[in-house]
Automatic annotation (TrEMBL):
The keyword Kinase applies. It is found in: Cytoplasm. It comes from Staphylococcus succinus. CDD domains: CMPK (cd02020). Its main location: cytoplasm. Keywords: ATP-binding, Cytoplasm, Kinase, Nucleotide-binding, Transferase. ATP binds at residues 10-18. It catalyses: dCMP + ATP = dCDP + ADP; CMP + ATP = CDP + ADP. Its EC number is 2.7.4.25. This is Cytidylate kinase. GO terms for molecular function: kinase activity.
Length: 218
């Protein structure tokens, strides 16, 4: 198969990362979770007591993604593996804000484009099809109802030992979507040439197979 890049965008908890992992595994491609980069920078922002100097935050940050057999993507920030902290509530509740800042986006987008330069990447995020990889070979815009997304995130949190309720998650997800869709720089939106995939009520296999069919059709 020829080397391709796949861009997977959509609102929070639409199942992008789960599906991206499955698609990448099926096609022997590398899955890049771009949200984890914004989460890592948010983790550092919180460690720095929410200091508002985002140029300083970026200029002092060394961020690298590594890929370990069986462990998937790891996020190395300033030489420390911070992956296990990135799903904590505090990070989740501040990440949209940090990700709206220009120095943060410029820094992350450049790294993402470097990672994708050699192709063979399934990349998920909010602006992959529109800004990061406008020439991606396949662009999918994944959506699902807020109710279903909250239930999926709740199951995820239970597995990770993170406390939450479905009601609280519905509210947080809706707020994050609103923020991500309405920010000034690279807001979340469907690329004109993306295919919309509504995953409400569909299981992982079904959605994965739908994307594999799209790949076949390229
Ligand atoms: O996919 P996620 O929930 O881990 O993303 C966390 C946040 O990061 C999300 O609310 C918005 C931001 N984000 C972004 O602005 N651009 C991306 N390409 C990926 C994530």
């Amino acid at each position: 198969m020829k080397l391709i890049n796949i861009a997977l965008d959509g609102p929070a908890a639409a199942g992008k990362s789960t599906i991206a992992k499955f698609v990448a595994a099926k096609l022997s491609m590398i899955y890049v979770d771009t949200g984890a980069m914004y989460r890592a920078l948010t983790y550092k922002y919180l460690q720095q007591n929410k200091t508002e100097d985002f140029d300083q935050l970026i200029n002092t940050s060394e961020l690298a993604l590594t890929y370990e057999e069986g462990k998937g993507q790891r996020v190395i920030l300033d030489h420390k593996d911070v992956t296990d902290y990135l799903r904590e509530n505090d990070v989740t509740n501040n990440v949209s804000y940090v990700a709206s800042k220009e120095p943060v986006r410029t820094f992350a987008v450049k790294k993402q484009q470097e990672l994708a330069a050699k192709k063979g990447i399934v990349m998920d995020g909010r602006d992959i099809g529109t800004v990061v990889l406008p020439d991606a070979d396949l662009k999918v815009y994944m959506i699902a109802s807020v109710e279903e997304r909250a239930i999926r995130r709740q199951k995820d949190n239970e597995l990770r030992g993170i406390e939450s309720t479905v009601e609280q998650l519905e509210q947080e997800i809706a707020e994050r979507d609103h923020y991500d869709m309405n920010r000034e720089i690279s807001p979340l939106k469907k690329a004109d040439d993306a295919i919309t995939l509504d995953t409400t009520g569909k299981d992982i296999d079904t959605v994965t197979n739908e994307i594999l069919k799209m790949v076949d059709a390229i």
